[in-house]
Amino acid sequence: MKEVSHKRHIAKAITWRCIGTLDTILLSWFITGDPFMGLQIGLAEVLTKMLLYYFHERLWIRINLGKQVISQWRHILKTISWRVVGTLDTMLLAWLISGNPVVGLQVGMVEVVTKMLLYYLHERVWYKVDYGIKDRSTKEHVLAQDNLLPQEYSVSQKYRSQLKRHQPLVVWFSGLSGSGKSTLANLVEKKLAEKGIHTYSLDGDNIRTGLNKDLVFTSEERSENIRRIAEVAKLFIDSGTVVIAAFITPLKSDREIIKQIVGERFVGIFVKTSLQECERRDVKGLYKKARSGEIKNFTGIDAPYEEPVDFDITIDTENCTAQEAVEQIICVVERRIVSRK
């Protein structure tokens, strides 16, 4: 999870102000024919623009538009909003210093094109710069972890399992969006519940609107999303519950982290469905948006899906019915838990 520091906002304000002021000085000099007046206008805007730009950055950090995906639209909208604010400031300053409103209008209008291009490029460069972006797993956080001592309770996982009369398990469904993960997960849970098994379902959209609503869809935060879910599943294991988890989980590295966290009480289900079939179904209309460029880094389109080769079960949804798939999964799950006697 990343945190953006105040130092980063200040550094961005300074670098942009250097670029913007030089542009204003040159434009004012060119329009008025007076280098001294160009210098006056440029220097006068330094203080006002620094302040305005800082607050503009602080405002945009609170706006979620374009954060959910790595979107160029966010950079474009920031460019436009800042240009409106910046141009109005330059026009007023040029008017006041030159005493001529026409000069103010000319300087303001000419700088629109140059400043929008420069500001957009400035945003793109800063997007690639890590300065002022801190990972929460900093030295201070690591030291804090050293002082945490998990509480041991009298009621153990073993005792809870005895009360429920079955062993806990994490049944993890992985597959492309639209592959049928959630459908199969729902049917499996229903079947287990009918047999008296204590279950709970964790689903991608449900988690994203609650526990993990602070995470976006960058590769790093997708991994953090999966890590948190695995930790939640581990808690359910401790409660003696059979967890049904349905998540795309596209990367092998993330699936390895899940296994490390959950331990041996893990059953992996690969819901194998071709990209073409998932696009044909397109239940949520996400593939259409991904193809049109509305969604970036969409798994299967412009982000990879590494097919699991070490999961317990592979379900080919294009060559078997849902009922056949459920029976196959239930058979494996029942071997891993102790049913009621």
TrEMBL record:
<feature type="domain" description="DUF2061">
    <location>
        <begin position="10"/>
        <end position="60"/>
    </location>
</feature>
<comment type="pathway">
    <text>Sulfur metabolism; hydrogen sulfide biosynthesis; sulfite from sulfate: step 2/3.</text>
</comment>
<keyword id="KW-0808">Transferase</keyword>
<keyword id="KW-0547">Nucleotide-binding</keyword>
<keyword id="KW-0472">Membrane</keyword>
<dbReference type="InterPro" id="IPR027417">
    <property type="entry name" value="P-loop_NTPase"/>
</dbReference>
<keyword id="KW-0418">Kinase</keyword>
<feature type="domain" description="DUF2061">
    <location>
        <begin position="76"/>
        <end position="126"/>
    </location>
</feature>
<dbReference type="InterPro" id="IPR002891">
    <property type="entry name" value="APS"/>
</dbReference>
<feature type="domain" description="APS kinase">
    <location>
        <begin position="167"/>
        <end position="316"/>
    </location>
</feature>
<protein>
    <recommendedName>
        <fullName>Adenylyl-sulfate kinase</fullName>
        <ecNumber>2.7.1.25</ecNumber>
    </recommendedName>
</protein>
<dbReference type="Pfam" id="PF01583">
    <property type="entry name" value="APS_kinase"/>
</dbReference>
<dbReference type="Pfam" id="PF09834">
    <property type="entry name" value="DUF2061"/>
</dbReference>
<keyword id="KW-1133">Transmembrane helix</keyword>
<feature type="transmembrane region" description="Helical">
    <location>
        <begin position="14"/>
        <end position="31"/>
    </location>
</feature>
<dbReference type="InterPro" id="IPR018638">
    <property type="entry name" value="DUF2061_membrane"/>
</dbReference>
<keyword id="KW-0812">Transmembrane</keyword>
<comment type="similarity">
    <text>Belongs to the APS kinase family.</text>
</comment>
<dbReference type="GO" id="GO:0004020">
    <property type="term" value="F:adenylylsulfate kinase activity"/>
</dbReference>
<keyword id="KW-0597">Phosphoprotein</keyword>
<keyword id="KW-0067">ATP-binding</keyword>
<dbReference type="InterPro" id="IPR059117">
    <property type="entry name" value="APS_kinase_dom"/>
</dbReference>
<comment type="function">
    <text>Catalyzes the synthesis of activated sulfate.</text>
</comment>
<feature type="binding site">
    <location>
        <begin position="175"/>
        <end position="182"/>
    </location>
    <ligand>
        <name>ATP</name>
    </ligand>
</feature>
